[in-house]
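Lab notebook, bench 4. The sequencing result for the construct came back, and we need a structural model before the next group meeting so we can plan mutations. Quick request posted to the team channel:

Model the 3D structure of this chain.
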Amino acid sequence: MGLGESIAFGTPETNRTSDLPLRRGLLYPLSYRGRVLQTGDFTLEVLPLISITRLLLLFCIALPLHAQVQPWGWDDGSVPYVQTPMEIVERMLRMAEVGEGDHVIDLGSGDGRIVIEAAKRGATGLGVDLDPQLVKLATDNARAAGVDRSVAFKAMDLFDADLSPATVVTMYLLPDFNAKLLPRLLKLKPGTRIVSHDGGIGEWPPDEKLQMRAPEKPVGVGGMSTVELWIVPADAAGTWTSDLPGHGGRWRFRIAQKYQMLDIDAAAQGRSLLVRNSRLRGEEIKIVVTGIVNNRAAHHYFVGQMKDNRITGEVTVSDGNQRKSFPWTATRTTR
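Done. Here's the predicted structure in token form:
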């Protein structure tokens, strides 16, 4: 040990795993609690032995036996392993509306709890983790839960996992890892749901966001957790035309897109109309337009499903006195 170096003992003073700085092969907690002990040529930061002993005794007495299992640990240095509280698991699956016909892929699956709970809802699943011991634990847990025929767990780098079969992707990773996954996630089938616990995905804004307290959260103080949902958007960018013989004839929509956010110009009968709102959620597109059509002011609510270069749906038109619905189809003419 050189002059001026120090050794630190204690517990990480951090509120969540994403607050832990990453260096390949080694993870350093942000800071440690403790008292500094200085010697002749180095600084040692420790807690008094008596204080440590008292804290450990109080901790063990306060917790029931089954709760004294360490809920977090370190893998090879890629991502810290921290259990997701079961209350958060439930919210993640509810937010993604997991059910029969879904295939859930959990990145960093740990003890397998997310995939196992998804299987109890009728889904199939795959858990990916770098630690073979955790993969074995998750496999044993799935067998004990009676869902081992519906799920599998693999020891592998999450960046090597094939995500294309997924209808739902779940993760509790560091934000830097989420950002690196962004290009792959955006290439998944439109409508694929992605749920993350305590970590955004680069600049991609979530479709839904929930903050809640989870008292059993094993890291941080206060137990605050954030759960976010993204739905992979279809490619809507370009110029679209549609014919509404009963209302305005030829319509034109020019759509600019960034992630699921749309910027739309609409026109009918040679007149620009006001686009009041829009939403792209997977393959479902909704557009609200107001303006003069057939010499009358009207409110238009377009709802359709997008497949490649075609939208099929319905438009509801209201002028304040009457409400009518027309079939709506649109075709992309340019990108």
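The longest helix spans residues 49-62.
Will bring this to the meeting.
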